[in-house]
Amino acid sequence: MHQCGARADAIQCDWSRVTDKDCLVPMRAFRGLARPAFLALVLALPAVKPAMALNIAVKGVVESNCFVSLSTDDSSLPTDGGNIMLGALGEHCNESSGYTVVLSSTNGGALVDASGNKIPYTISYDQVDGRPLSEPQVINRLDPQTELRTGALLLSLPRQLVRQGGFFSDTLTITVRAR
After folding, report:
1. Gap between the Cα atoms of 28 and 26, Å rounded
2. What is the pLDDT of residues 31-83, one digit of tens each?
3. What angle do CA 107, 112, 117 make, to 5 degrees?
4. Do 109 and 28 share a structural domain?
């Protein structure tokens, strides 16, 4: 009797008494089965489909953010006319196509008292240099301004016209708008 015996469901060996000769036939049979199985696996690899790629479209909107600020001090009108520093004007607009700054006046560029007396003035800011506000003044900015841009806002009064005392006023409107 050999030390290895075969059953229908397994090969049993008493490995402490087995010689190479005793189990040579079952090992050869296993080796004969392993080669075709390995060869079939290697030949099947090129048939495996390549990994799929996934594209994700990322889209978003950055809202336009445009604003204007003014740091001011109360100013008295000098009786002899001249320049009055209204404050430091700040502008900001992140619109990629740029923005416009519009300076306009409720009274068409004049300080007016309760009786309707007028003192005309001019305004200076950046490219607007000593211009009356009888019409709105427009400054076109071609690029976005992502940091606050500041500049002096000056009002100039004619020297000879400021003689009469009283309360004079106007509303200066400064608009920053995306293009």
Report:
1. 5
2. 556 666 666 665 666 555 678 889 999 999 989 999 999 988 776 777 777 88
3. 125
4. no
